[in-house]
Amino acid sequence: MAFGLVCCLVVxxxxxxxxxxxxxxxxxxxxxxxxxxxxxxxTHGDAxxxxxxxxxxxxxxxxxxxxPKPKVPWKPLxxxxxxxxxxxxxAVVDDxxxxxxxxxxxxxxxxxxxxxxxxAHPPATEDAESDGNGEGEEAATIPKPxxxxxxxxxxxELNGRGADWGKFPEALVKAGYAVAVVDxxxxxxxxxxxxxxxxxxxxxxxxxxxxxxxxKFLTNNVAQVPQVQGENTALVGASIGANMMxxxxxxxxxxxxxxxxxxxxxSPSLKEKNLExxxxxxxxxxxxxxxxSQTDEISYHGTELLYRLAQGKKSLLLFKNVGRxxxxxxxxxxxxxxxxxxxxATLPPKPLPVVYPKPKPTAEDEDAEE
Length: 370
Fold this sequence. Notes:
It is globular, with a radius of gyration of 32 Å. The chain has helices at 2-24, 35-48, 57-62, 96-103, 125-128, 168-175, 201-220, 240-250, 280-283, 297-309, 327-330, 336-346, 363-369; strands at residues 77-84, 87-94, 111-112, 147-155, 178-183, 228-238, 260-266, 271-272, 275-276, 288-293, 314-319, 352-353. Helix 10 (297-309) links the parallel strand 10 and strand 11 (314-319). 36% of the residues lie in helices and 19% in strands. Helix 7 (201-220) crosses helix 8 (240-250). It starts with a helix and ends with a helix. With 370 residues, it is α/β, with parallel strands linked by helices. The chain has a domain at 89-96 and 147-347: Alpha/Beta hydrolase fold, catalytic domain (Rossmann fold), CATH 3.40.50.1820.
């Protein structure tokens, strides 16, 4: 009996010591890693992620004493160019000059030209409220540009709009170009009166002339867009925009073709909406880069034929499956470099000084001279 009690007492003491040791021993995660290492990894992850520090603390520590830069949204100059009968072309124009303004918290007010035949469309509400800098100051405080930059006009595809180019316009501005992103007639903000779905054959045949209208405005309006070299222009067209571009460039009777220095055709076709390209391409003298993807087999094979018909300096890039038209540059940004390099080689972004017209003398000036 006494021996049994002693054995029970010894077993109880040993079991108690075992429990105490378990409570004091470091616990290990279920995956077997040492908890110390697991905690260090988690801390390292927080330091690189969103939980590295409370909002604003990291920036203050890095840029101590520096004034915060103004945050201005990408809202470049908007232009509405009348086509007659109340129709107008909407375009967004951006350039290195405006890029410099945005860094100072400034932006240009929209330009709406009067339509001699019908009332022009009013500007969009958000643009009409802009006073030119987004902060309530007078637009007169904006410094005038002293340089103007070669122009690149972007023409989107059927049922598209200018925004379909994604960040490609920004890449062109960074390369040193002025960029005009056009909503084609009947599309986007250029389709407020008539939609392209109601167009007849004659309406489509008139669309290449819209390119001349845009070029004429950007070339002859030093007062509104002095920072644009309209006399040195490149065109980038996608799908039906490429067809319009080829037709416009192949019409050598038009004086505007003389200032077209370079062309880029993305997914062009032999014919789309009464816009045939097989004859005009023969008369195109400007350097032309053609790009197509097997995603659109009709355009792919049409591009191959157009390339063979082109007479001047030319280059052809064919891809397997990288979309069609603007998708090629928007969804595959690595392809943007092909276009930028082509433009740099055929239309170098060399800025020129802006020459402002001399103000006409007033009656008071004439009296003072006498």
